[in-house]
Amino acid sequence: MVMFKSYWTIAWRTLVRNRIYTLVNVAGLALGICACLVIWVVLHYEFSFDRNHPGGARIFRVNSYEQYMKDEPEQLVPEVVTQLPEMIRNQITGVETLAAYHELHNWTATVAGASKGQKTDYTAQPIVAGPEYFTIMTYDWLAGDARTALSTPFGVVLTEKRARQFFGANTPPAAIIGREVVYNDSLHVHVTGIVRDWSGHTDFPFTEFISYSTIDHSWLQYTLGVDANSKRLAMCSVLMKLAAKADAAKVNAAIASMYKRSWPGGIIPRVEMQPLSDVHFTPRQDETAFRTSQLSTLYGLLCIALFILVLAIVNYVNLATAQSLTREKEISIRKVMGSGRRSLMIQLLTETFLLTAVAGVIAVLSVRPVLGAFRQLVPETIQFDPLAPANWLFLLAITIATTLLAGIYPARMLSAHSPVIGLKGAGAPRGGGKWWLRRGLIVFQFTVSLLFIICTMVIGRQIGFMLSKDLGFRTDAIILFSTDEQRDSVSKVKVMEEEIRQLPGVAEISRGNIPPMGPDRAMTGIRYPVTNPDHLSVEFVGADEHYIPLYGIRLLAGRNLFPSDTIKEAVINETLSRRLGFRSPEEAVGKLVYTWGKNVPIVGVVADFHEFSYKEAIEPLMLVGRASTDLQLRMDTKGRSTAEVRIILGRIERQWHTVYPHKVFNYSFFDEWIAQLYRREQTMEWLMNIATAITVFISCIGLFGLTLFTTERRTREIGIRKVLGAGVKDILTLLGKDFVRLVMIALVIASAGGWYFMHRWLQDYVYRAKLGPDVFLLAGGFLLVVTLLTVGVQSLRAALVNPVRSLRSE
User: Fold this and answer.
1) Strand pairing partners for 274?
2) Which residues, in sequence order, are CB contacts of 599 under 8 Å at separation 6+?
3) For the chain, what are the domain ranges?
4) CA–CA dist 295, 281 (Å, integer)
5) What percentage of the chain reaches a pLDDT higher than 90?
6) pLDDT band for position 53 (cuts 50, 70, 90)
7) What pLDDT is recorded for position 10?
8) Which residues of 25-48 are buried (b: 16+ CB within 10 A; e: fewer)?
9) What does pTM read for this prediction?
10) Do residues 91 and 258 make contact, with C-beta atoms less than 8 angstroms apart?
11) Is 460 buried (19+), middle (13-18) or exposed (0-12) by CB count in 10 A?
12) What one-character DSSP code corresponds to residue 145?
């Protein structure tokens, strides 16, 4: 015990005595440990979704995979055709429970208040499900019965929080049973059950469950497209729990085979089971999706955190080996006094552990501020509890691992010194292994810093290219909103459209099924028998005559569409014109193409515009007149203030509520809609900027400490050189030239690696910025300037010292 107390005392005194050494290492290690702690908190949160369901390893979601064209990648859709669940129940063995359900988005729930005639509207996102849902996703029931609550039509189950919101915080759950909720002003249902709110993290955070049998007894069958007269493909979501001994691979193969036999071909080529634990890491294609996470992003964050920690460890090893030159006599005296190599290693590792522990405390205190700074990337529900056992264990593990990785080599090297050589003052030769090790570690630090700088510059250049490139249409001051297309007549939407068109501040309004650019897409087939008898898959936009003027799409030949709610004529883009074999846009005008079961004349050709992200090439596209209830509106914002724009939006909303009094007015700005396509790249750039700043900072503080030790070790040499006539410039060159060489070596290595990784990354984009040599020269120049500034400050101080002071003891 006395021995260990002595170790701690000596370690503390050593660190306090060498303040700059301690400060530099604590700063670097604190950054590395803090980065790892933050990523640990994020990973621990992300991997906690849907992990506590009983039998969770046997629960699967059944997904469809859409593919509009043969050459494009498949897109996951978390739904299947509505006929599939019943076929699985009847034909597939090994399935214990299957629950089909429908998600309903942007609904309105109306609840009667305490006063007579008083009603309150709430935005609702209910699902339509059967009792099987609660067999798979288990809830604690506060009122009602799980087996019967959803077995009859017009029943609804609410979560506790939702029930209290609807009917008051003090109303007992039993008293809520039988109360009425009205959805979309016409679907009357009664509460048949109350369940406790889900306590864990889940990707199924539903709060209202309407009984599945309600579909057959209400207008829901038309809304969901499951009625016999519906012409669209009805889809539903499916959760499935397998029997205890069922083979998931065999069940999945059986479902895939059955689906292929029943629905060969089409835009949904296959279906597949997905484990519940994977759902959180699978982005959904529909815009109403709940939040998911990407494993690639999480692993990228983890790699960045580990890089930062490794750089901090490299810093420590670098400084410890440099400091060893000043501790040789101390170690030699300890050996002469009887200390063995083992005890010396323990002493030196104790110093490292103490330093790492201090860095760990600083890192723990920094986690919450860092999470706050990263709120745009980190979910608000993530919280860091420093007293949680899991966090303490992780912190202890990373502290021990860092201590061993950072301290084992310096401890072995210092404890191996010969006391005879150390006491003679011979020291280690400058050209020995330690000097080459430090050079190698410095090159490694510079290489990592340069890689981050190069990657950040290339990503920023690509984002700048995407934001500055002409999209081929107007994006500013345009808002998008839609109506309930299953219940509204087109004529009703037309009336509202004309009323909104007359409002002050509205420049143009149009009806179209999708905007020119975004995640949505619609496909159809056309045939031009003159040049090709086969069908050609093309993108299509169903729009009115106001669509092209609203977006400012350039017309190259012919004219715009005439007003029509049916497909009578078409406007095509340049790409489709060339694909059909026309040598010029003018040649295409007047030609007939076969689509939608009839010959349709081409009346105009528009300039190509980007429909999707820059990762995809511009595809053949056709605009046709077609009844649509989705609206796009362009405001006249020229010369108007933000307050005036809000007034325009208020007018539009009031007009909306004259037609839809109980429906929430939800809209989105078109430029924000487009920004979703670049969000991943912008997030990556922001993270790379942070990582670059940290890595450069760690490299700089390491260089500062190393330069400090180098100048101290060469004080006498500098004094002699000054006596012999060397000037300040000569001393600066002497101390800085080695670091400049190392920067150039690192630049060569980082340029090769950066070009390889960034060239591969840019290959994902059909339209991309050029990767020229200027990127690598600018990155190298930036790091060289930072290095010279860091080294130059300390070198200048050494060069200005009076040589009499450094040589008077000689």
Assistant:
1) 61
2) 592, 593
3) 56-281, 447-468+677-810, 478-675
4) 6
5) 26
6) confident
7) 65
8) bbbbbbbbbbbbbbbbbbbebbee
9) 0.74
10) yes
11) middle
12) -
pLDDT tens digit sequence for 544-559 = 899 999 999 999 999 9
Helix (H) or strand (E) holding 272: strand 270-275
Which residues 6+ apart lie within 8 Å of 532 measured at CB? 580, 581
User: For the chain, how many residues are written?
Assistant: 810
Tokens 């609410």 belong to residue? 158
Angle at 734 between CA 731 and CA 739, to 5 degrees: 130
Distance between CA atoms of residues 311 and 288, nearest Å:
42
The pLDDT assigned to 428 comes to 43
The average confidence (pLDDT) of the chain is 83
Q: Is residue 443 predicted with pLDDT exceeding 90?
A: no
Who's near 335: CB < 8 A, 6+ residues apart?
344, 417, 419
Q: The tokens 């003159």 sit on which residue?
A: 530
pLDDT in tens, 182-217: 998 889 999 999 999 988 888 898 999 999 999 999
CB 161 within 8 A of CB 111: no
592 sits in which H/E element: strand 592-595
Query: Which residues, other chains included, contact 386 with Cβ-Cβ below 8 Å and sequence gap of 6+?
Result: 364, 367, 392
Measured from the Cβ of residue 441, the count of other Cβ atoms closer than 10 Å reads 22
CA 455 to CA 476: how far, in whole Å? 31
| CA dist., res. 572 & res. 593, Å (int) | 11
What does the DSSP 8-state code read for residue 638? Answer: T
Encoding tokens for residue 577? Answer: 């014109």
What's the distance, CA 236 to chain centroid?
27
DSSP string, 444-492: HHHHHHHHHHHHHHHHHHHHHHHHHS--SS--TTEEEEE--TTTS-HHH
Structure tokens at 708: 């400090």
Amino acid in the structure at residue 670:
F
CB count within 10 Å of CB 147 equals 10
CB 595 within 8 A of CB 569: no
Residue 717 neighbours by CB distance under 10 Å: 13
Of 585, 673, 554, 575, whose CA–CA distance to 622 is shortest? 575
